[in-house]
Structure formats: C-alpha cells, structure tokens
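BACKBONE GEOMETRY TOKENS:
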Amino acid sequence: MLLLTVLSLGLRLPDLDADPPVAALGRQGSTQISGAFLSDEGWYSRNARRHALGEGWFTEEGLNPIVVTPLFSLLQRLSFACLGVSLSAARTAPALLGASMPPFLFLALLPCLGHAGAFAAALLLAVNFPLVMYSRLALTEVPYLSLTLLSVLLLLAAYRLGRQALAISGGLVFAAACAVKLSALALLPVAAVHGAAIWWMERRTGQTSGKVSAMSLLLSWAGAAAAAGGLALRLWLPQGGEEAAYQLTRLAGQRSGGLGDLIGRTALFLTEGALWVHWPVLVALSGGVVATGLGAVLLQFHHRDRPQASTAEGTWSRLFLDPALLFFALWFLMALAVLAVTAYRPLRYHLMLLPAACALAGTAFHLAWRVPGAKLRKIGLLTLLAAATGLELSGWARWYVDRRHTVVGCARQVGTLIRREPGTALVLGRVADTLALENHLGTLNLPVGVPVEDISSRLELHRPTHLLLLRQRELGSLVNRYPETFTGSREMGAFRMLESYYTGEPLRLYRLRPRSGP
C-alpha cells in the first residue's frame, strides 16, 4: 500500500500548474471532449478565492458554487489558507484526494481478493492516465469519487469487523461526498440493492457478521441520504438563487425525449463513450485476464476427479457472494446505466466507472491467479499487468517531458497588463475566474453560451474595466452597440492544448472605457 501511495502522489503532485493534455480529457473532435476545465476550475474556486482575498463568501453576480458544492469550496479555502491563492493551490486538494483512491480500493478489496488481486486493481486505478490528469485539476469529480470510495471502505469494514462506529462514519463520509458533488447520490440505489441482497443472504443462512448486520448498513446509508437530501433541498430554496435555476436547467437538458432519443443516446454511448473506447488498455488487460482465468478454470473442471476442481468451484462461489465485489458490480452497472441515458457526458463524467471497473479487473486477475498449477500462466498475468501499467505511465511521461504552462502564464500576463493601468480592475469573461487565481482581481463570470444581451446588460450594470473573450462571435454586435467603449485589445496567445475544443482561437483581452450615464 505504501508503494501505491507513493506512486499516486508522484504522478499527481509535481508541477500542478502545468496544462493538462487534450488526449487525457476526451476523444479529439468528438462530443466527449470537454474543455470546460478552463472556465470551471475558476468557477468552482471563486467563492473560496473571494473569501481568501477578504471579499466575503458570496457574490451577487453570477453563480455561487458554494451553494451547490459547499464542502469543495471549504477544501479550496483551506488550500488557499495554507498555500496562498493560486492555480496550483486550487488543484492541491483534488490531487491529494485522487492519490488516496488507490489505497482505499486496495483496502476494500484485500479481504476478498488477497494481496495479488487487490494490488492489481489498485495499481490500474493509480496509473490510469485520464484519472491522473483529472486529479490534477480543480474540479469536483475526483474528490467526490475519493470520498465515496472511502465511505464504501468504512461500511464494508463495519460489516466485516462488527463495528457500528465504522458504519456511522461511512454514512457521514458519504454525506460529505454528496456535499462535494451531488452526483454521489446516484450510488444510493446501489446501496439499497446491496443492503437488501446482503440482508436476504443473512436471512437465508441465519448468520450475521459480528454486531453489524445488513440492516445497520442500510440505516447508515439512510442517514447519509437524509443529510445529502437536505443539501439537495437547499438548491430549491429561494436563497439558492441562480444556482438552483442552473441545476434545474441542467436536469431538464439531460431529460430523455422519448424511446427513440433514449436509444440514440445509448448507441452514442456505446460508440463514443463506453469503457472500451476511453480505456482500451484496461479493457484489453481485463479481457486477457478473464480469458486466461476461464481457460484455466475450464481445464480444472474438465478433470473432475482432481481435488483442484472443488477448490476452483469454491473460489468462484465465494467471490460471487462477497459484499465488496457485489457492491462494485452494482456500482459498475449503475454507472453504465447513468451514462447511457445522459445527454451531456464528457470524459470526466465517465470517471465514475473507473473504481468499479478496476475492482472487477482485479477480481479477474485474482481468479486467474488462484487456479492451481501452470507457473507460465502467472508469468503471463504479470506480463499483462506490467504492460498495462507501462502504457499508462508512458502517456504521463510523454506529457511530463513536453508539458506547458499556458494557462498560468497567460494569467500572469493578463495580471501584469491590467495592474499597469490606474483604477480598480473588474474583469468580465468566461475564463476570468480561472485567470484570477493567479491575480488579485475582481471578476464577473460569463456562463457558457450567454447571449449578447446578457453581456451588454452586465457591461451597463457593472462597468468592468476589461473583457476576456476566448471566442469572438459575440463581439461584433457589442462593438456596434458601444463603439466608444472598446478602446483597444491585445491577443494573449492561442491555447494549444485546447485547439480541438476551441478551434485554436486566441484569448483576447479588451480594454473598456467606462461610459457616462446609465
């Protein structure tokens, strides 16, 4: 486990202000790629940044992510208190939580898979290239998955060890995961089905594990659900403001339009978003391990008079009923179902598949490893695991050798230019929040797809001194409407790592002259 922890930290912490590679964020030219990190990193950090700079938690302009993701905002604030306000500080908490995922998975699987299978699963999770890169971004996906995995570990430990305190702790950690991102609520049906299945097996066998029964686990999950539900209800209250409207819009936009639409989304998921598309290394390894294991087991079953046959049968039946593997299997099916029916699903949404997928790959490795005989087969399994690990690490190594610092460099350049001019700067634009992580600047956020009328109304209301635009389509009508406002502009350079998403358009900084009168 020490090796897993050191490896995870070593892949995630160095040079946190470097740009992520497009290849790790989705398929180039497809609907799966998301460049939203350029705006979302600053957006998710904006309340914590404001508070760290002495401006108070909330802003009356734009969204307040602390309402939707309160715990993530508090984690960001803690990072800023310890490290100062910067892009790398904003990414520190997700990187640390991402590095904790492989040890959590290892401990959860160790009782049922042993060291070999648990290590194989955790190693695949530790070196997965997209997961490593998303762990290095100030986004909510990796932190909520890490806390969810910890809650599963605690609840499984409570069931195995008979400790009610662990069950209560697991429920509280799950509620914390929901406070980081409400997507964690999707695991509640998994917990309900899992608890009901364990309860049914307990009733059938007449045995429970220590002092903690499946009913205790269900009550722990129910308590967590109540806490998470209270947080979700917060979005519907009037003080939720624009955040509630934003969340409701997202839900409405992802609603299925009927059977034909559902079939179309599922087909698109299978061709563009499925596990074998994004993570062929993991799928190839799992397929090879499963083929090796099944072949060995079938050979054992063919010789029914051998004592190894009963051993193989016992191994399969025991694993199929293990609470940990049952939970990860249900988790995997839930994630597939959610992604298949969702309209917008960039690769960062697919990360919810990874813990369960790696757990199932580790199970296949364990089954193939445990079948008696054939040392050559074990050598082959280790070769497959080493090849998969090497391929994932090679992607990280190529990026690290050729890494760039475009975002942080551009942010510092913008700050230098603005601070040369007199007066208090107020920057308007979609990417303003992210660039402000490196500068003590006031910002106004523009949501993606904001209409021109909204931009002009904000210009009239707040009278910012500068405007940052990554796409220039909106600017023509604004210049025609306020020709005296735009006094000059400067191109800040093209974002090379975003060319497939933003078509290589440069970021442009505009100087705005305040208008007289309303």
